[in-house]
Design a protein that fits this description.
Layout (H helix, E strand, L loop, with lengths): L2 H7 L12 H11 L6 H6 L3 H8 L3 H5 L32 H6 L60 H12 L15 H11 L20 H16 L3 H17 L6 H15 L6 H14 L13 H6 L3 E2 H8 L3 H9 L3 E6 L2 H6 L2 E6 L11 H15 L2 H6 L8
Antiparallel strand pairs: 1-3, 2-3
Bound molecules: zinc ion (2 copies).
The site of one zinc ion (ZN) has 6 residues, from helix 6.
Length: 407
């Protein structure tokens, strides 16, 4: 485009500001040059590149902008594996305190998962507090609502909890490169988005039927709830994650006694951990899930559980009565006797198969058995031998009581 034409079309040519949204820059450009809508640029310039060339933006100046350009120029080419669907295209979010300091829109505010201002540690806004309307992204004056209220002058929202702020900062830092949250493995921005949108849907009282299908991520309420829940789970790791697993397990067991499979009991969360978030970068979730099973899953874990790590299968402390008897070379009735005498912890449970084949026990070593409960040393020694065979070398540590007199 000829220089004279540019001068007449865009006489005022502001430069991009670090981190500014592409759309926000176009709004600013349109506003200072007297345009009513950024759509008019679509008619004047054939592409975003064409506009940048016309403005004489250097590569460095273009690189400070972040986010997709308007769809009238076709699909945007985004860095870091981001997709256009990760951004808000219709509604604006903003921090009034930031707008007061400098009238420009940050590109990070356009990310659907972005809910917190990293400079002021407050929730972003999406509605005018005077008239309650959302602020559309296709208007030109992003500082004033249609009702006349100044979006910079409204009161900022309250401060966010430290854990939410910390997670939000970590996510924003991953715009530039992989970033880690409190000792977790570093993740890229698309990985963070995936983790938050899947894991954030699970609470102790509510689990999604179809995880990952979130209809209203462009709304602040939805996105902030996901961010809040993920930060809660990651912040007190792994206590809160274990509490979630325990709640799901309790709920499944109360609903149907026939839910004896791990996959059925943990339902959609199991699917999320082993399918939706199956990438190696999310292994820390599966590790903690399998650690939980080691402690709290009353059933057996065996080679049929192919998704689990081999160590999880090998180290699981529970075996069936039949397996235990075989391992110790004694009759199942002897093992059952141990269970009745409370020397070995045994859970009696019923499976669909067991309804046909009789009842089934699951066994694990008890930790606090006193040898004093045995009537004589010889008898205790014989029991110890069988127990070692049943429960492995841990028996020595767990089963000998200091007050027994046999240590
Ligand atoms: Zn701010
Ligand atoms: Zn308003």
């Amino acid at each position: 485009m000829a220089t004279e034409k540019i001068h007449s079309t865009l006489p005022v040519r502001p430069r991009p500001i670090q981190g500014e949204a592409v759309v926000g820059y176009l709004m600013r450009l349109a506003g200072v040059n007297g345009y009513n809508s950024i759509r008019q640029f679509g008619k004047i310039f054939g592409s975003f590149d064409g506009l940048c060339q016309a403005l004489g933006l250097t590569t460095e100046e273009r690189q400070v902008l972040f986010g997709p350009y308007p769809s009238f120029w076709g699909p945007s080419v985004l860095s870091n594996g981001l997709m256009a669907a990760d951004f808000n295209h219709s509604q604006l979010r903003w921090c009034p305190l930031c707008l007061r300091e400098s009238a420009h829109l940050l590109g990070s505010w356009l990310l659907k998962i972005s809910c917190v201002c990293k400079r002021h540690a407050t929730w972003l806004q999406e509605k005018c507090p005077d008239c309650g309307s959302f602020q559309r992204l296709d208007k030109v004056n992003f500082e004033i609502c249609g009702c006349g209220a100044s979006l910079a002058e409204i009161r900022a929202a309250g401060p966010v909890a430290d854990s939410v702020y910390h997670l939000s900062q970590t996510v924003e830092a991953s715009i530039i490169g992989n970033s880690a949250f409190s000792g977790f493995p570093p993740l890229s921005l698309p990985e963070w988005l995936k983790l938050i949108s899947y894991l954030g849907q699970f609470t102790e009282t509510c689990q999604p039927r179809k995880p990952g299908k979130i209809a209203n991520m462009h709304q602040l309420d939805t996105a902030s709830a996901l961010l809040l829940q993920t930060s809660c789970l990651l912040d007190s790791w792994p206590e809160n994650f274990h509490a979630l697993l325990a709640a799901i397990q309790r709920q499944a067991e109360s609903e149907a006694k026939t839910k004896t499979r791990i996959r059925d009991t943990f339902g959609t969360l199991y699917h999320v951990l082993y399918t939706d978030l199956s990438a190696p970068c999310f292994q820390f979730l599966r590790d903690e899930f399998e650690r939980y099973l080691h402690e709290h899953w009353w059933g057996v874990v065996n080679k049929r559980h192919r998704a689990f790590k081999p160590e999880t299968v090998a180290q699981h402390p529970r075996v069936t009565l039949k397996q235990a008897a075989k391992k110790a070379g004694v009759a199942p009735s002897t093992v059952r006797h141990f269970v009745r005498a409370e020397v070995i912890a045994g859970n009696l449970y019923t499976t669909m198969a067991a309804q046909k084949n009789g009842l089934r026990y699951c066994l694990s070593p008890r930790k606090n058995i006193s040898a004093a409960s045995f009537m004589c040393y010889a008898r205790w020694k014989r029991y110890m031998k069988i127990l070692r065979l049943l429960c492995g070398p841990r028996v020595n540590k767990w089963m000998l009581s200091r007050c027994s007199g046999y240590c």
